[in-house]
Please model this.
Amino acid sequence: MHTVAKSKPTMPEVAGAEHTYVELSDGRMHVASMGQGDPVLLLSGFAQTWWEWRELMPALAKAGFRALAIDLRGEGWSDLPHQALTRTRRAADVLELFDALDVPSVHLVSHDMGSISAFQLGLEHPARVRRQVLLAVPPPQMRFSLEMLPGMRHLWHQEVLSIPWLSPALLRSGPLPQWLLSHFAARPWDSDVFDFYQELLRDPELSRAAAPLCGRMVLPELARITRGAYRQQRFQTPTLFCFGTRDLGFPPRVTRKVFADTRPYGNEVRLALIDGVGHYIMDEDPQASTRVIMDFLLEA
Model:
């Protein structure tokens, strides 16, 4: 894995990616970009940073899109205070980024925690989102059922990481980073990738940001979804939800039931399943993931 020297963990190098820092109201956001054309904004999962999209970005650029992979507040190489994190602050950061780059609307691809900001943008600012793909997350309008309870037991770490004094200690030392990566993956990791994601999870800044990320964003959104706060809202743009067939939280029998009737979620909402992968869809099968995402975006 080739790297280029930078502060914090050493930033990986992806051929053809250009790195810029965009000034926002209280700091600067790191943006990795590639290609020219209609913008596709990429929002990563917890601690995976812009680098999660290293396989997708060249495919987007080759197809005539402009890939914009960002480091959301509290993660990666952005310099944005995590103390300001709230349930919607990351989505507000993205809107600031749109204005700073003079981007009226984007296609949107997201994963895990990044999808929280994605569905907030899709529901509250539909004119800014053309098409969107959400990886390994359910629709916020869904209704919980007893069938989901076995999957929920795997998510205990969200409550643990929401504890400010405990979260940094668990991430910076001990087995939790390794557990987070290995437990939710269905396929073996490349050792370099696994080690680098562990390094990101152990980063002092991220370890401090994990508590507000979980305590002020993830858990409040889970409470809102549980009580049906989004059931009166529908996605106005074509939307694809994608899961691995070995996802621990949402196995196929659950996802197929959740998506049996997509009308409560929006006019053009679909489900795609990628065979043999778990939660880390892009890392576990980048070729299949890229193909599914590109096919959907190229329908536009």
About this structure: The radius of gyration is 18 Å. The first strand starts at residue 3 and ends at 4.
